[in-house]
Amino acid sequence: MNATEILQELLSPAGRADPFPLYAAAHRLGPVLPVTEDVFLVAGYAAADEVLRSPGYEIPSEPSTRPALSMMQQSILRANPPDHGRMRSLIAQVFTPRRVAALRPAIEAAVDDLLDGLPAEVDFMDRFAFRLPVTVICELLGVPADDRHRFRPLASDLTAALELSDASDASADAAARELGEYFAGRIRDPCADGLVSALVAARDAGDGRLSDEELLANLILLLVAGFETTTDLLGNGLAILLREPDLTPDEAFVEEVLRYDSPVQVTTRTTRDDAEISGTSIPAGAGLVLLLGAANRDPRRFPEPDRFDPSRPGNKPLSFGAGAHICLGNSLARLEAAIAFSRLRERCAAITPAGEPARRDRLVLRGYQSLPIRLVRR
Q1: CA-CA distance, 194 to 48, in Å (whole number)?
Q2: Which residues of 69-96 are buried (b: 16+ CB within 10 A; e: fewer)?
Q3: Which residues of the chain form beta strands (DSSP E)?
Q4: Sequence-ordered list of residues with C-beta below 8 angstroms from that of 23, at least 6 positions apart, any chain
Q5: pLDDT, tens digit, for every residue of 277-317?
Q6: 36: exposed, middle or buried (C-beta count within 10 Å: 0-12, 13-18, 19+)?
Q7: In angstroms, rounded to a whole number, what is the distance separating the alpha carbons of residues 110 and 26?
Q8: Which residues does residue 32 pair with via DSSP β-bridges, in sequence order?
């Protein structure tokens, strides 16, 4: 199997459902694999880490008339320097280590409220994995509780635009328009102490730090990114606990979930100039498909990569990226997951499957659509 065949299989339904054998095949070929003269797969941990951290590689960002792509390209998700740094500095103040740590009591209270309301048999994804992170990010954004139920399908449709195919253009664009209309209303009437009001003030300062379009795009991004990947982290982690109930769901467990079954499996970059990555020559303008899920299972970096082992020393997965574009909310996602799994273990004598789980048919963002479970309370 060559790199072209590996990429084709990854884009197939079977490859999306279980990409890990294909990652192993890529590792047998090398850390950087040419698909064409100007498209390369990056599967090795060291190679992917180098690309993510180096300023010589950029986010692909071509102007688009599609609402979903246009919105993303005006946010920190797809922006390049200097725009990326300008916008990110405004948002990063909300996600400092001190501010995230201060959220612990509120997250613990939210987890306990959700657990109190869970019936003995429940779809974990719908009643917990989505509701916890959406509650946290909406509190930060000042979004009313009555509006939150609408965001899961919209986020699912919007993030289809991140996939490496164009199968969901219409639904992604419709979601972008609906979310844009919603946040346009929030901008007109922001919560006095929410992040929305702080970003509105930055736009209104008139110093060029934030345009109208960038304000709207980043609010949508913060909402969607604030719960989408954390929802998948919670679901992927619980699925592992269902298979291995004797594991201790602590911070090391969360880190190994991120490595073993990352919510984000793929990202992309382009080269500004001719480059060399792990001994492979890359021409200027080439497209790089970074297989983060493969990098997290690189046997050169993680011995026995297909074994789930929370005791791994120096476990630093690339699930949230690295370098200038590392996910702003990565510490918040880790905290939410650690609290959630710990509270689940404390309050439940047993958690067992209550039906067949269903994966979402995605490659880039990997998670469950439904995960039915049965709870036995202590």
Answers
A1: 36
A2: bbbbbbbbbbbbeebbeebbebbeebbe
A3: 32-36, 39-42, 57-58, 121-123, 266-271, 275-277, 280-282, 287-291, 348-353, 358-359, 368-370, 372-377
A4: 43, 291, 293, 294, 297
A5: 999 999 999 999 999 999 999 999 999 999 999 999 999 99
A6: exposed
A7: 42
A8: 42
Using a CB cutoff of 8 Å and minimum separation of 24, what contacts does 15-21 make?
15/363, 16/361, 16/362, 16/363, 17/359, 17/361, 19/265, 19/293, 19/294, 19/363, 19/366, 20/293, 20/297, 20/306
Closest CA to 173 of 70, 263, 266: 70
Beta-strand ranges (E) seen in 97-232 are 121-123
The full length of the chain comes to 378
Write out the two tokens for 93. 């103040």
| pTM exceeding 0.85 | yes
Q: Are 356 and 107 in contact (CB under 8 A)?
A: no
Alpha carbons within 13 angstroms on the beta-carbon side of residue 75 total 22
Pairing status of strand 372-377 against strand 348-353 = antiparallel
pLDDT digits (tens, 9 = 90+) for 207-239: 667 888 888 999 999 888 888 999 999 999 999
Identify the three-state secondary structure at position 214.
helix
- Per the structure block, which two tokens stand in for 211? 């345009």
